[in-house]
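User: Could you go from structure to sequence for me? I need the amino acid at each position, not a summary. Structure tokens:
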């Protein structure tokens, strides 16, 4: 789901996610982007208008709460889907992450938040028909005391309160927080390096976003100087490698990669994986 302009770079972020998926997902997939306006993105990305999801607007709640609409089977007409935020970097092949989601045949597979006792909805898989009760509850006006007035804490609170869904968590190492890795590096650089290098996905939540973190001046003024204040010279993991993972080398490399993989297996790669982006 892409709402707003994301610093005027929303279209770029959508295309970059598409390219990362082409490079890191072997199976053919359909990428649906639920958007509040037409986007100038690659023609293979299916754009679906979500500007009419006004039932998800509530005073005091973050705009990201509109993400709860993907739990409505009428909006997402698929049996099983994988959801990804736009504000993340896919560092390496997603085979292990997808395999874990499939092996844990639950209604919802999601990330534990890095900062407080809640889910983090940046990466998850779910069956829309089985989690529709979350959407319906919010639409009906259900509310809970929340530290952060957004979608993910509502998901966590309502799943816990209702007990309707079978929920499991992704392994902690598969999805890494960039902000947490930077903070960890100030005291334990070896652990920070391990966090990033073992991760499949690095999530950029809050500030900075990817285009900021990969800008040399922003990184020096906002990250490097803070590290120096803690007695550390730079970061223990490669920002250059992360930047290359985000920027990539275009669509063709991903297509060649998937085609060669299929040839090595001696069979056609199966169809049937849906992935959904959101800011």
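Assistant: Here is the amino acid at each position, in order:
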């Amino acid at each position: 789901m892409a709402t707003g302009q994301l610093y005027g770079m929303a279209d770029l972020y959508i295309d970059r996610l598409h390219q990362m998926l082409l490079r890191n997902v072997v199976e053919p997939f359909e990428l649906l982007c639920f958007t509040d306006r037409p986007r100038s993105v690659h023609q293979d990305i299916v754009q679906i208008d979500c500007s009419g999801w006004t039932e998800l607007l509530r005073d005091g709640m973050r705009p990201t709460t509109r993400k709860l609409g993907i739990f409505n089977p009428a909006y997402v007409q698929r049996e099983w889907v994988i959801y990804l935020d736009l504000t993340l970097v896919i560092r390496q092949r997603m085979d292990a992450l997808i395999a874990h989601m499939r092996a844990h045949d639950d209604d919802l597979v999601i990330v534990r938040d890095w900062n407080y006792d809640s889910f983090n909805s940046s990466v998850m898989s779910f069956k829309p028909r089985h989690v529709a009760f979350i959407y319906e509850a919010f639409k009906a006006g259900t509310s809970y005391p929340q530290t952060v007035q957004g979608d993910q804490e509502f998901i966590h609170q309502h799943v816990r309160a209702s007990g309707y869904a079978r929920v499991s968590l992704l392994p902690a190492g598969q999805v890494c927080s960039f902000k947490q890795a930077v903070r960890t590096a100030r005291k334990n650089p070896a652990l920070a390096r391990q966090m990033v290098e073992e991760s499949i996905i690095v999530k950029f939540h809050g500030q900075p976003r990817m285009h900021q973190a990969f800008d040399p001046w922003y990184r020096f003024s906002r990250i490097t100087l803070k590290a120096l204040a803690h007695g550390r010279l730079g970061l223990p993991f490669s920002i250059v490698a992360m930047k290359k993972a985000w920027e990539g080398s275009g669509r063709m490399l991903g297509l060649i990669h998937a085609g060669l993989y299929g040839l090595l297996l001696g069979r056609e790669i199966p169809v049937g994986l849906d992935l959904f982006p959101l800011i």
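One structural detail worth keeping in mind: The chain has two domains: 10-170+249-278, 176-246.
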